[in-house]
Amino acid sequence: MSKLAPTIALTAALAAGAALWIDRATAIGPTAAAKPGLPAPAFSAPDISGRTVSLGDYAGKIVILEWTNDGCPFVGKHYDSGNMQALQRRYTGEGDVWLTIASSAPGEQGYVTPAEAKADLVRWRAAPSGFLLDPNGLVGQLYEARATPHMVVIDRNGRVAYMGAIDDTPSTRLADVKTAKNYLIAALDEIAAGKPVTVASTQAYGCSIKYKGT
Asked: Which candidate, 52, 53, 67, 55, places its Cα nearest to that of 21?
């Protein structure tokens, strides 16, 4: 996983321990929820190394957001088949930014500490650009993430190009990955070809995200 340069120095309190900083995701500017065709809501959140990562750090790049849950069998389908890792390597290799995000609240399925998230990356042999922690659910709710996996593509102009399911087959069967229509690939291929994204929004399938306070 590539290292992300910090844009905001960690304070002594943040450096003192994960419990002090993993709930620090924030919105920047207007907080209207994400919609295809509109500017992507700005945010910042800590990654699993304690560095603050902001969407604005990647201006001019395609950014892919992936909501995850390490206990969800629908997420497991895409990792156990090798599909998610292959997509991560393919698109980061093309210069895109891939941010994996965990928005589950503490005590709920899918919540991870920094150490647990790091172990997941090793176990999955995953290769995102970064893994962000959003236990207060602010980033997830900005991007209307309701189930995992939930995918968002932000184009080079900073607009939401796609949001929703990774593909059109809501199952946990590994074999279905090969026959499904992959909405993420379709959107990124159309962007690369300079075309408008044909399917810009779908309903994500998978395990519901348990947000803090809900």
From this structure: 52
- Model pLDDT, residue 43: 97
Task: Find the helix or strand (DSSP H, E) in which 46 lies.
Answer: strand 42-46
Q: What is the CA radius of gyration of the chain?
A: 16
What mean pLDDT do residues 140-159 have? 97
Residue 93 lies in a domain: yes
Confidence tier at 31 by pLDDT (50, 70, 90): low
Number of domains in the chain: 1
- Report the distance separating Cα 149 and Cα 169, nearest Å: 12
d(CA 36, CA 147): 18
Structural domain span for residue 191:
40-208
Q: How confident is the model at residue 8 (pLDDT cuts 50, 70, 90)?
A: very low
Domain membership of residue 33 (yes or no) is no
Q: In this structure, what CATH number is given to the domain that contains residue 171?
A: 3.40.30.10
pTM of the model: 0.86
Inside any domain, residue 1 = no
Q: Tell me if 156 is assigned to some domain.
A: yes
d(CA 117, CA 195): 36
